[in-house]
Amino acid sequence: MSSKKKCIAMLLAGGQGSRLSPLTKKVAKPAVQFGSRYRIIDFSLSNCVNSNIDTVGVLTQYQPLELNDYLGTGEPWGLNLRFGGLHVLPPYQAETGADWFKGTANAIYQNLAFIERYDPEHVLILSGDHIYKMDYSIMLDEHIANDADLTVAVIDVDISEASRFGIMNTDDKGRILEFEEKPAHPKSTTASMGVYIFKTSALKEYLIRDEADPESKNDFGKNIIPAMLADNRRVFAYLFAGYWRDVGTIGSYWQTNMDITGDNPEFVLNDPSWRIYYRHIHNRPTYFGTTGKVHRSICGASNSIYGTVEDSIVNDNVLIEEGAVVKDSIILSDCIIRKGAKIQYAILDAKVEIPAGCKIGGDKDKYEITVISNEDKLSAGQTVKAAAKK
Amino acid sequence: MKAAGLIFSDSYDVALNEMTKARTLAALPIGGRYRVIDFTLSNMANAGIDNVGVVTTRNYHELMYHIRGGTVWDLDKKRSALTFLPPYAADNQSDMYHTRLEALQTHRRWISRLTEKYIVIVSCTYIGNIDFDKMIRFHEASGARITALYTKNPMFKSGGQRLAKFTIGVNNTLTNVDIVYELQEGDAFGVNCYVMEVADLLKLLDETKREGKNNLVLDVLQPLAQAGEAVAYEAKETMLFMDTPSDYLKSSLKMLDRETLDELYENPARPIITRARDSAPTRYGETAVVENCLIADGVRIEGTVRNSIIFRDVVVKKGAVIENSVVMHDAVVGEGAHLSYSILDSRVVVNDGRFLGGYITHPFYLEEGTVI
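ok -> structure tokens follow
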């Protein structure tokens, strides 16, 4: 067994995810449930394992309890290894003081000792809030072939959306000439996915320099990449052509969930060559009663369904009683939907109970999405009206 | 009051034919995502038993692949372990064992190294969510040398095989064991599940071996019963048997009964655990119809499924109709195909438009990997 890794991954999982509230009220964004059986972080972790990257540092900060429990020793992803594997890296107290992670770059800076322990030639930096299947080993090969100091994974986005992203302008060899964070007038549609591979030496150099600058926001997009471009370092773009979504908002979270449903889903999860691994809750298969109906939907395990489910995602251990109708909605784990309740274009947080006869939400073409938190108390027959579309 | 566990995983006294050709009964898939042994392993783990031996004789590849080190049941610990006990593992045994008692005699060495006071011995021939902790406490309070578990309601246990019928006296004393071939309603049926002290078991193994005896029921249980040193413990829990393909189908479909389903799986203190497969979640299509069925992960359903059990990663294509059937993992049911009272083993492919059917007493069974 060698005492060195070619490439290790650092997964940024500390963000608060306030735009996903109330789903992120007590849970870090990477631990939010997705696609009935998964947590958002499963996609990045599984991509690592499927790309032969077996050492992953997960940087946590906000509401880490459920995330830490979920990650455990990394066994569900095959990351419980003697040398390498999954390591949770929380903020810590050091001799010279204790610091929260100030920004994405600072989070990595504070964990340089972890990186050094594995002496990798390259470091892959990932976000814990993206839904995609990506083979990082292809990107790594290109990064090495280009002798790049930094390779930024990019995706071609619609010009109307380009100003939401970090936009790259490249030459015909893929070398990045210019980088603009969320430009008002984007010059291209090549958007950063927040997936970076650094040559370890370059990463260290720029992190140390960034840390010394009190004016810096300690952010990869805002500070590190512009600094490297300014120094004319070898920074390349790697174009990723597959499905990739940032599920940072309630709207994108809902749409991305829906992208896995239907007879020909836009994002196919049932892919034996690229399994997405997850921690199992060890429960029975889903039971459908004689009155149960389900169309164009995804349902997890241990559910009991006596009502109607259409165009929806139902997570695990959910009870949907007779006469209840769930349409265009996401029902997270351990929810109970009583007799005759109607749920339309809504997201139910985990452990929500909808009493009999309640009406939640409205037509998805006319109204905004309705989100029910598990702190909301509903009474039988209550109507929760959706807000009119803006 | 610590107990160790020992599981007989071979297919004793059953007539499952091709269903157990390449695997033992313990490794038989059941209930959408389980193997028969999952229930016994989970029952043991839930009773705090964490040193478990699994006796095997033949066809144990699928079983070993399924159980591995027992990690998912938390049986792979620093100070205890799940241990496979195959034949020829003992230094003094040159011959293959054929009976349960011979197997115990052969594995004397493993038993002698147990530090637990008691041992729970189970023949893995049924499924149920049995409270072994209660049975061990019953044994401890009884003062008897052996406690034998019985049920008065062995569901879907067909006759024709050798069955142990218990005669029970006052204070649950087991007074006699008869070998019969048919059970009458209300009979106490012994299921080859015992609690004993480890030290006493070792003594009995030495005695029976010296005397050339080889039958656990007739040479160990019966003499203890006649000497007034055995007690009988009634399992009130549902016990489902699967000695024939028809019994297997009946036991499987019994899980669609809500009470049975809840008893087996919805006890938070006694979960039934199985090995994960990391299947994607199940996708129900535009034309899916699902009524009174259990459907596992990784399935794609575009057809109709009624009164049936669908295992992981099965594909049910458009227009297919599955009724009163069991479809095991990775099987594909083609467009417009009809299944009725059928058991499809893993990786079976039923091509478009095929009509297959049996009857509840004679289900139509397709072997693993068959393409029809």
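DSSP finds nine helices and 29 strands in chain B.
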